[in-house]
Amino acid sequence: MIAAIALGSNLPSPFGSPSANLQEALRRLDARGQVTAVSSFHITDPVGYLDQPRFVNAAALLQTELAPLELLHRLLEIERAMGRDRSAAGQLHPKGPRVIDLDLLLCRGDSGSPEILSTAALTLPHPALHQRRFVLAPLAEIAPDLEHPILRRSIRDLLNLLAQEETPAHP
Fold this sequence. Notes:
Alpha-Beta Plaits; 5-stranded antiparallel sheet; alpha+beta; 24% strand
């Protein structure tokens, strides 16, 4: 299976800067399969909760034998091991600062067929994928033709559509 994963960080940690946190997460991801592509690192403004440092975001493609739900559990294990506490007591705000954030965006089976899931633990494709420039821009660098299996649009098209929506109309 090929999995598209979003990475983000905006806090320093024992591993170093937010960029170093992404590098460490990528190293740990590579132990769960093979990282086949990594985008450049993007500096982005926070979304939703603005009183926090800017983020470093990236996207990666992972070739793995793990099923989507098992992969999600491994991503959460990486987050915990790197110091992220997703519990209500451990975070100031659900969209607040974090050492590392790993989101499973899309998965394609070995046959190339997309994984579409909707469970209490995991929704694929990620339900907000098409609304997040900080996810689409890095993913478009490494997989521009990857298709959103529900919207039936490529990552490149979704990024372009989002840019059009964000551009104010001139009279």
